[in-house]
Design goal:
Helices cover 53% and strands 0% of the residues. By secondary structure, the protein is mainly α. The mean pLDDT is 78.
Length: 128
């Protein structure tokens, strides 16, 4: 008795989950882009803080008595820590209106008439 009920509930849940969502609007796309940019900036800040912490640990080790007792080889050169700076939201560009987008304009300017003096019958040949 329980198995058919469970199967029916599973089918209902699967149907609800597989329903197609509507397309995102312009505001939602802009918000998603801003969220992605902020997440990328947060990752860069985390890497910068990790780099600075590793530099402090290395400096502390080299200044300590253990490093003096066991002279180490020269440190490998590493690039300096890159500060990502403050967060700056990505610039949002307004979509071009249809007239400015060139969607209705021909690719090249016409320099001669589009047709020739030949008739359609001359271009296509005799009837088969």
């Amino acid at each position: 008795m329980r198995t058919p009920v469970i199967a029916l509930l599973a089918a209902l849940v699967a149907t609800a989950v597989s329903a197609k969502l509507p397309a995102l609007g312009d505001e939602a796309k802009a918000k998603a882009a801003d969220t992605a940019a902020k997440a990328a900036w947060t990752d860069k800040v985390g890497l910068y803080q990790l780099c600075k912490a590793m530099d402090r640990v290395a400096a502390t080790y080299r200044a300590g008595p253990e490093a003096a007792a066991h002279p180490a080889s020269a440190a490998d050169p590493t690039p300096p820590c890159a500060d990502p700076g403050p967060y700056a939201a990505p610039a949002v560009s307004a979509p071009k209106p249809l007239e400015a987008s060139g969607a209705h304009s021909p690719a090249d300017m016409a320099t001669s008439p589009p047709g020739s003096k030949a008739t359609s019958a001359e271009l296509t040949g005799p009837r088969k």
